[in-house]
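Supplementary Note 3. Input sequence used for the single-chain structure prediction.
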Amino acid sequence: VQLQASGGGLVQPGGSLRLSCAASGSFFSIGAMRWYRQAPGKERGLVAAMGSGVGSPTYYVDSVKGRFTISRDNAKNTVYLQMNSLKPEDTAVYYCSADILGRSQWGQGTQVTVSS
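The predicted structure, written as discrete structure tokens, is reproduced below.
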């Protein structure tokens, strides 16, 4: 099982980015999917999460509520993170995680830098 994250980059404050994370390999289904981030000198923290079913509840850390949206396309085994109104404090490496085959699988991370 592999998770491939993409979509990071350099963006100005107030801008937007859309991260994607696609799972590949031999598995029947994917459970919960999540996005984490880790800024320099800080611990990795959960940013957003959602369950596997249609209409599953979502979770957002307070600092991104109203700006970030997590979504998934189960047909493509992909989770997305739409990030709007980005702030310098959103700068971090973003990691995706998914519950597959009874354990949490991790992607390699994608760098997001918010700077003018």
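The chain has a mean pLDDT of 95. The two ends are 37 Å apart (CA to CA).
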